[in-house]
Amino acid sequence: MSVIEVHDLAKTYFVGKLEVRALRGVSMAIEPGQFVAIMGPSGSGKSTLMNLLGCLDRPTSGQYLLDGEDVSALDRLKLAGVRSRKLGFVFQSYNLLPRTTAFKNVMLPMLYDRENVSSRAERKERAKAALEAVGLADRMHHLPNELSGGQSQRVAIARALVNDPALVLADEPTGNLDSRSGAEILALLSELHQRGRTLVVVTHDPEVAAMTQRVIHLRDGLIEADVHNGAQAVAAPHSPTTEGVAP
């Protein structure tokens, strides 16, 4: 079963009387364990596609199956539930709560997940394990302003992993980082892929795309090319751990 399966996905916006066809019928599938980049120039539709794949918006038409569940026509409340259960997000600007420690930032997805029946002690262990998995065991009680950009992004990655999502979506994850920190985050994402995680990265950076197995190029709301990066294009099986994060 594909983690992502979309058929003729379209999204139309209206700006006043102007009709903007952001997506014009995108069809694709992403298999478990794949590491995929989505690229395209400004106005190509990549941000719109990211919002649809992340269940932040609904398509105008077409079908989207996420981990086997048709989410195309779900209302906002049900989409929020899907996001909590099946998706992890990593943003360019980290999106950490500024007055909350790294540990508590990582705890948040478990608090928002209404179907999470684990005890508080179990949640704490999962958050601790997630931070340890990204190399931040010694920074878990620091506030975001006490962390470097690279460390903040690692917290964001830990937060994305803590609910053991079917899919991790990263939007320009190295965009706010210097070259050294960016390389470290790319290495971490590559490591997560090797452990079996399914990752989709939206990026304009060819160096980021080169780290992935597969690059989907968008232009004018359509897939212009779908390129596999040679020998890297071998999907690894997804093996969730009992702690809910990659070991």
Walk me through this protein's architecture.
This protein is 32% helix and 26% strand. It contains seven helices and ten strands. The chain has helices spanning 46-53, 76-86, 102-112, 120-133, 149-161, 179-194, 206-210, and strands at residues 4-15, 18-30, 35-39, 61-66, 69-70, 87-91, 167-171, 199-202, 214-219, 222-228. The strands form two sheets. It has a six-stranded mixed sheet. The chain has a four-stranded antiparallel sheet with strand order 2-1-4-5, covered by helices on one side. The two termini are 24 Å apart. The model is unreliable at 231-247 (pLDDT under 50).
Q: What is the helix content?
A: 25-40%
In the CATH hierarchy, the third-tier topology is known as: Rossmann fold
Summarize model confidence as the mean pLDDT: 89
Tertiary shape: globular
Going across the major beta sheet, what is the strand order? Answer: 6-7-8-3-9-10
Distance between the termini: 24 Å
Strand content: 25-35%
Low-pLDDT stretches are 231-247
> What structural category arises from helix and sheet content?
alpha/beta
Largest sheet: 6 strands, mixed
The number of distinct structural domains comes to: 1
Total strands: the figure is: 10
Can you tell me the CATH architecture? 3-Layer(aba) Sandwich
- Please trace the helix and strand order, writing H or E for each element: EEEHEEHEHHHEHEHEE
CATH homologous superfamily classification:
P-loop containing nucleotide triphosphate hydrolases
